[in-house]
Amino acid sequence: MYKVSTISGLQNLIKDANIKLKKKWGQNFLVDGNILKKIAAHSGNDQNSYVVEIGPGAGALTQELASLHKGVLAIDIDTSLQPVLNQVLSAYENVQFVFQDVLKTDIEAELIKAFRLTEVPHYTVCANIPYNITTPIIFKLLEQSTNLQTTILMMQKEVAGRILAKPGSKEYGLLTLTVAYHAEVQFLMNVSANCFYPRPQVDSTVIKILPLPDKKVLVRDHDQFMNLLKFSFQKRRKTMLNITTAFFACDKIKAENIFDQIGISSQRRPETLTLEEYASIADAFYDEKSLR
Ligand code: SAM
After folding, report:
1. Residue 32 phi, psi (nearest 5)
2. CATH number corresponding to 222-290
3. Is the N end or the C end of the chain the one with fewer CB atoms within 10 Å?
4. What is the bridge-based pairing of β-strands 196-197 and 29-30?
5. What residue ranges line ligand 1, CB within 6 angstroms?
6. For residue 105, which atom of ligand 1 is closest to its CA?
7. Which pLDDT value is given to residue 287?
8. Residues of the chain with pLDDT under 70
9. Strand, helix or coil for residue 151
């Protein structure tokens, strides 16, 4: 049996199974047993719970998750990993695989099907995700899940930095605010590039994303609010006065009045505003527009 949580074990498996690792799918596998255990431990230890792993690769994290949960649904795009995963996970009866693109997968429907359930269970996502699709994966999980309890994700350190960024920093932006709108986020650990095979160019960070039952701020018009955020960060160097007059098609005097009323300077730049301040701006302009 191959010990896929070590470099030599993984290398032997890849050689014997004649697997070609694919850069386009971010196939850098974690080969540090302690870190694998720590990541899995953050997903909880509950023999009644289900966990979804995106990108099981050679199955090292999958093994850890299988020993902590009732069922593991592992979704990987690479069908050539199927024989390898069947072999590595042969001792675990509680692991089910889906071989398709996670972005095109109805995760909750697959959970029901895989474990013959009658409804979507509470579940956790725990994964070392393909770094090139980190943002679409996070948006999918936050926008499409109905019963997702928590998410433990390993990603490129710089992307985690953008999610965890504070207002005023250069990392702060649309990703920070969109995630903060839907969830609480927490830093868990950094992982050096040396802990992977093949060694990637970048270091990694594991974070916890805890979806909120309600959005962090209540706004009158969700779509308009999201569009204001996107528009603002496309014009990062402009003041909020310029941004709002263009976005809401409003004249400068009216806009200045609105900023005065809500106590936010119209001269601030997009990266300095909190989520709550954006909500306050969006609602104040929404009200002004509906009175027009
Ligand atoms: N879980 C393993 C580990 O920690 O060592 C492998 C993680 S590796 C960074 C990312 C995995 O995601 C690869 O196995 C890759 O085939 C898979 N993957 C890449 N794109 C995917 C997609 N769109 N849908 C599902 N899996 C994908």
Report:
1. -135, 105
2. 1.10.8.100
3. C
4. antiparallel
5. 25-30, 54-57, 60-61, 75-78, 101-103, 128, 130, 133
6. 24
7. 84
8. 290-292
9. strand
Question: Quick one: pLDDT at residue 288?
Answer: 79
Q: What is the pLDDT of residue 183?
A: 97
Residue for token digits 């960070």? Answer: 205
Which residue in the block uniquely carries the two structure tokens 């106590």? 263
How many angstroms is it from 172 CA to the middle of ligand 1?
27
Give residue 220 CA to ligand 1 midpoint distance, Å: 38
Q: Is the peptide bond before 198 cis (omega within 30 degrees of 0)?
A: yes
Q: Give the pLDDT score at 292.
A: 62
Instruction: Give the architecture (CATH level 2) of 7-211.
Output: 3-Layer(aba) Sandwich (3.40)
Tell me if 85 sits within 8 A of 4, measured CB to CB.
no
Contact between residue 108 and residue 87 where contact means Cβ atoms under 8 Å apart: no
Say if residues 179 and 215 touch (Cβ distance below 8 Å). Answer: no
- Exposed/middle/buried for residue 273 (C-beta within 10 Å: 0-12, 13-18, 19+): buried
Q: What is the pLDDT of residue 47?
A: 87
The residue whose two tokens read 């701006």 is: 281
Check for a shared fold between 7-211 and 222-290. no
If you write DSSP's letter for every residue of 228-278 in order, what string do you get? HHHHHHHTTTS-HHHHHHHHTT--HHHHHHHHHHHT--TT--GGG--HHHH
Tokens 């032997």 correspond to: 12
What whole-number percentage of the chain has pLDDT above 90? 96
Determine the pLDDT at residue 46. 87
28 CA distance to ligand 1 centroid (A)? Answer: 8
